[in-house]
Each structure stands twice: as structure tokens, then as C-alpha cells.
Design brief:
Strand content: 35-45%
Number of domains: 1
Low-confidence stretches: none
Mean pLDDT: 86
Oligomer: single chain
Largest sheet: 4 strands, antiparallel
Length: 126
């Protein structure tokens, strides 16, 4: 009788461990997707900000919006994430001979029903 009890208890612990292990996979997959998208959005924001910094110091254009779809492979499936890049410039009047221009880049995307964004700001001095 005690041998049967030990076998049933062992199978119960094993089944519980399997259930716990398989319930972790969706959470890990979602976290991996979020991290990949944040990393990609940060790289996009940095590259657009650097591109704006290389342009000559000029009057402020209207805010610009660019669609930026990124195709990646996740678990053997091709997945497209649609990022939207917003670029805004502001000039700060300091009363000094130097002028400061702020370059702000905001990258937005959706993960299911959740809206995400990354904000990157840098300054240009003339």
C-alpha cells in the first residue's frame, strides 16, 4: 500500500512540475517579443536622431511622421512589427549668441492591445 502511495505521489509531483514548466513558455515568449521590440525601437530612435543631428542647423520643419515596418523571424514564423517614428525639433532662445535645438524622436508600436513607445532626445548647439 505504501508503494502505491509513493508512486501516486511521485506522479503527482511530476505532473505538477510539467504543468509549471509548460505554463512558463508563453510568458517567456511574450517577454522575448517585448525585449526584441524595445531593442529594435531604441535602435530606430537612435539612428533617426543621429540622422537629424547630421543635418545642418536650419529652421524648424513641421513634425515628421514615418511608418517603419520591421520584419523578423520568431519561432520560424515571419512577424511584421509596424513602428511609427515621430521626429520633432524645438529651438530654445537663450539670449546668448548660441542657440540650442532639441531633436526628439518618439517610436511607437502596438503589442496586441498594448501601445508601447520609446522616446529619445538629443540637443544640437549652434
Amino acid at each position: 500500500m505504501s508503494l502505491l502511495l509513493e508512486v501516486v505521489l511521485g506522479l503527482g509531483i511530476f505532473a505538477g512540475a510539467l504543468l509549471l514548466m509548460f505554463s512558463i513558455f508563453p510568458t517567456v515568449h511574450r517577454s522575448l517579443t517585448e525585449a526584441k521590440n524595445y531593442r529594435t525601437a531604441s535602435a530606430i530612435a537612435a539612428s533617426f536622431a543621429e540622422r537629424e543631428m547630421l543635418q545642418s542647423y536650419s529652421p524648424i520643419p513641421a513634425p515628421q511622421v514615418f511608418p517603419y515596418p520591421v520584419v523578423s523571424v520568431l519561432d520560424g514564423k515571419s512577424v511584421t512589427t509596424n513602428f511609427t517614428v515621430h521626429i520633432t525639433r524645438q529651438t530654445f532662445e537663450t539670449g546668448l549668441p548660441t542657440e540650442y535645438q532639441s531633436v526628439q524622436v518618439r517610436v511607437e508600436w502596438n503589442e496586441g492591445a498594448i501601445a508601447r513607445e520609446v522616446f529619445y532626445e538629443t540637443f544640437k548647439v549652434r
